[in-house]
Design brief:
Layout (H helix, E strand, L loop, with lengths): L2 H9 L18 E2 H10 L17 E2 L3 H6 L4 E4 L10 E3 L3 E3 L5 E4 L4 E5 L27 H11 L3 E4 L6 H9 L1 H10 L2 H25 L5 E5 L12 H22 L3 E5 L8 H6 L4 E3 L10 H8 L4 E6 L4 H4 L2 H15 L5 E5 L9 H9 L4
Parallel strand pairs: 3-8, 8-9, 9-10, 10-11, 11-12, 12-13
Antiparallel strand pairs: 1-2, 4-5, 5-6, 6-7
Helix pairs in contact: 5-6, 7-8, 12-13
């Protein structure tokens, strides 16, 4: 069984020869510090400095030698930067992105320090300088890259997200407090904001998948609905307001290409996992195991027949504080639970952070073969 077959069979909840492994995507990658520590530990020659492709989270790409070292079954495609917009660089290690969001470097990451729509009215949204989904730079060279990977390798080809999740973007541009009031009241601002962002995102997905849709097997969408101890809003609000938006959104994505959808939401989302399956999500990431009600045993028992899982290896405590033996034991345990009958892709529960020791990274990926 090759990597592509293994990956698709796992998503389809069919038996596989071993659990497939993912690394290198939007939320299963290396922070630049953890990556540098790993290649130094492995004595791998990589003298060129790695520039993060995700500035906010400081994520870098792993070289092919690392992906091969850990028998990774996937290779990732992502959109490029627009050519008609340049990030606005500010003093004190800050910048403004194409959505108008201001972020400032805090050492290891970049945090939001200004919400550009906080004091805007619904009337003002029409004249706001929104990103241009037609910018050709986003899609340049993607077809050739995806075609080469599909036709000349046996890896599963996965497309990383394009655009923003609606809740995440609303909180970033409006502020959590005001956007959640917009969400509850269903005011004119919320309706117009969702309509504009929906159209931008869908057009981006259409052009993105026009280039790569014939060659990729899965795509990522991202939007957080949960926190450590609960959902960010009630299940009823999710079902009445957010679910219809995402049902149409996922339907649009799947109309552009025959792909599986992996959706990322952190936190405790146990009450809505069935809803996520109903709107067309095939795989749930990250299955944050320390969040309330999100243990592998519980989610597999309740929802393992309708949705597959990605991640589930704890990055909050285990990868940081555990020994390699602890991690190997947990990987085998999680794989035996979530991978029973298929339905599981092994990956860290989020990006591998700076305080994760190289020995623990090695244990995470090697232990599935022991």
């Amino acid at each position: 069984m090759n990597s592509r077959e293994r990956f698709l069979k796992a998503i389809n909840r069919e038996y596989v020869d071993r659990v497939p492994i993912d690394l290198g995507g939007y939320l299963a990658s290396f922070h630049r510090v953890s990556y540098k520590n790993l290649i130094d530990y492995l004595n791998i020659e990589d003298t060129s400095p790695k520039k993060p492709w995700d500035r906010v989270q400081q994520i870098v790409d792993a070289d092919e030698i690392i992906l091969n070292r850990f028998n990774i079954d996937t290779r990732h495609i992502r959109s490029k930067a627009p050519v008609n917009f340049k990030v606005i660089e500010l003093q004190e290690n800050a910048y403004i992105d194409e959505w108008g969001i201001k972020r400032k470097g805090t050492g290891l990451y970049y945090d939001i320090v200004d919400n550009p729509l906080r004091f805007k009215s619904a009337k003002e949204l029409g004249s706001y300088n929104w990103p241009n989904p037609l910018d050709p730079g986003r899609y340049e060279g993607l077809r050739k890259e995806a075609k080469n990977l599909c036709e000349n390798t046996e890896y599963a080809i996965v497309a990383d997200p394009i655009g923003y999740g609606f809740v995440e973007l609303g909180c970033a541009m409006r502020g959590f407090d005001i956007f959640f009031m917009d969400l509850i009241t269903q005011n004119d601002f919320f309706k117009k904001f969702i309509d504009i962002v929906f159209k931008i995102n869908v057009k981006m997905w259409e052009l993105y998948l026009n280039e790569i849709g014939d060659y990729v097997q899965a795509v990522w969408t991202c939007d957080d609905f949960g926190i450590q101890t609960s959902m960010m809003f009630s299940p009823d609000i999710f079902r009445s307001i957010i679910k219809p938006i995402y049902k149409e959104y996922i339907k649009k994505i799947k109309s552009f290409a025959k792909v599986k959808v992996i959706h990322h939401t952190c936190g405790s989302v146990f009450p809505i996992i069935k809803d996520l399956s109903e709107i067309g999500i095939d795989v749930l990431n990250p299955l944050q195991p320390l969040a309330k009600d999100m243990s592998p045993e519980k989610v597999k028992k309740e929802y393992g027949s309708i949705i597959s899982f990605h991640g589930a290896i704890d990055v909050q405590k285990l990868l940081i504080n555990g020994t390699p033996e602890d991690i190997a034991g947990e990987v085998k345990k999680v794989a035996s639970i979530l991978g029973n009958g298929g339905g599981y892709i092994l990956a860290p529960g989020h990006n591998i952070q700076p305080d994760v020791r190289p020995e623990n990274v090695i244990a995470l990926f090697d232990s599935i073969f022991i």
